UniProtKB/TrEMBL annotation:
Source organism per UniProt: Ottowia pentelensis
Compositional bias annotation for Basic and acidic residues: 71-96
InterPro entries, alphabetized: DUF4124
Annotated spans, Disordered: 60-103
Name of protein: DUF4124 domain-containing protein
Domain of life where this protein originates: Bacteria
DUF4124 domain mapped to chain residues: 2-55
Length: 177
């Protein structure tokens, strides 16, 4: 009977849990709102295979003495994080960065159109006191428009640069500058 129990495949109890930021984390300890996952080795233990290093050990360049095999939860977390990074990079590359770039252009075009409209109204001013007052009003509107447009364009450019930097940090957006 003991031999039968030893021959049975080992099963690890793993929990899929939400972290504070709402991302899914895989761990070996139960959590509130988590789901249980039963995980067992695909082909059993292979002593000839080198141990997989935990991310911290691999980054530190740990050798055999410092090698700590990754737990199943750590392997699943590493795959999940890589998948989330890939998804975020694709989202930024195909939607986020191009949309932010388009928003910069749209802001410029809208501001130019509004400025052209105000300039075209200058021609309707009469050469009298009412016309002078009207021209002063247009000048004030133009100045306010320039200030607002400069702030909006700066905000859109900052958004674009932030998204582009994030995308490049994830290894994408090589065709953007």
């Amino acid at each position: 009977m003991t031999a039968l129990l030893l021959a049975a495949p080992a099963m690890a109890q793993i929990y899929k849990c939400p972290d504070a930021s709402g991302r899914t984390v895989i761990q070996q300890v139960p959590c509130m709102g988590g789901k249980t996952m039963n995980v067992r080795p695909a082909s059993g233990h292979d002593p000839a295979r080198a141990p997989v290093l935990a991310p911290a050990d691999a980054a530190a360049g740990g050798g055999a003495a410092a090698a700590k095999p990754m737990t199943e939860a750590e392997r699943i977390n590493a795959r999940t994080e890589a998948s989330q990074r890939d998804r975020r990079r694709d989202e930024l590359e195909h939607r986020g960065v191009p949309s932010a770039d388009a928003a910069v252009g749209a802001t410029r075009r809208n501001c130019r159109a509004e400025m052209a409209r105000l300039e075209s109204e200058r021609g309707t001013a009469n050469n009298n006191l009412a016309g002078a007052t009207f021209l002063q009003s247009l000048a004030t509107q133009e100045q306010a428009l320039q200030t607002r447009c400069a702030a909006e364009e700066r905000t859109r450019r900052d958004d674009y640069q932030r998204l582009l930097a994030e995308c490049k940090a994830l290894g994408g957006c090589k065709n953007f500058h």
